[in-house]
Design brief:
- The structure is a single chain.
- By secondary structure, this protein is of the alpha/beta class.
- It has seven helices and eight strands.
- The protein has a domain of 161 residues: Alpha-Beta Barrel (TIM Barrel), CATH 3.20.20.
- The chain has an eight-stranded mixed beta sheet.
- Strand 1 and strand 2 form a beta hairpin.
């Protein structure tokens, strides 16, 4: 596994839990607004963290942290992920997985085996604008659709989330996404913030007022939808 980051404490990444976050490098998408370009297009082997060091850290923190968030990049692409998760779980940790939903078979396998406790899946945009929004010329949405179905029909807690970027998301997209996710448990519209580590610099978020309008649209389909990270 290509671990390239360890945030030793987070009260935000895992809803309701005290956790740490492990960052895995590598992704098959190229979202221009990606806030971790150093894990996607500018991977530097010098930043590798030995997996054993992460496991040692987790052994020491047993009893102090509830869970481990595994994020990226796209964690489901990482060879050895299942073994890593098994080792974490054997220490008593809950596991939250962040994913772009493109590896539905791997997601389904982890969910079926009961190896993840919470999944946060990105919904990048309305289906018609997906390829453009993930920075690819074209993209077959089949796996993303399967991942959505797996979570909506499964038993584990999950959330869908969309990072809203002025250059990519328009009013009609929220209508489309809402219809697509109709009946979902939890859905968050996240404000875009320039991390300074973007794949394509120069993008902008919307004002709170516009985000609230977008929320009203998606709430028609996902009544539990909320805003996140809006100033
Ligand atoms: S935002 Fe997520 S899915 Fe998109 S390029 Fe970055 S890590 Fe990959």
């Amino acid at each position: 596994m290509n671990v390239q980051g360890l945030q030793k404490l987070t009260l935000l990444d895992y809803p309701g839990k005290v956790a740490c976050t492990v960052f895995l490098a590598g992704c098959n998408f190229r979202c221009p607004f990606c806030h971790n370009a150093s894990l996607v297009t500018r991977i530097d082997p010098k930043n590798d963290i030995p997996e054993q060091d992460v496991l040692k850290f987790l052994k020491k923190r047993r009893g102090m942290l509830d869970g481990v968030c595994i994020t990226g990049g796209e964690p489901l692409l990482a060879p050895g992920l299942e073994t890593f998760i098994r080792e974490i779980r054997a220490m008593g940790y809950l596991v939250k997985l962040d994913t772009n939903g493109s590896s539905s078979a791997r997601l389904e396998s982890l969910v079926e085996k009961g190896l993840v406790d919470y999944v946060a899946m990105d919904i990048k945009n309305s289906p018609a604008k997906y390829a453009q929004t993930i920075g690819l010329g074209e993209y077959d949405l089949e796996n993303v659709k399967k991942s959505i179905k797996c979570l909506m029909e499964g038993q584990i807690p999950y959330e869908f989330r969309t990072t809203v970027v002025r250059e990519f998301h328009k009013r009609e997209d929220f209508e489309e996404i809402g219809r697509w996710l109709c009946g979902a448990e939890n859905y968050y519209l996240q404000g875009f913030v320039d991390s300074g580590d973007l794949i394509r610099p120069g993008l902008r978020g919307y004002t709170r007022e516009i985000m609230e309008q977008a929320l009203e649209i998606v709430k028609k389909y996902v009544p539990n939808a909320q805003l996140r990270g809006i100033e």
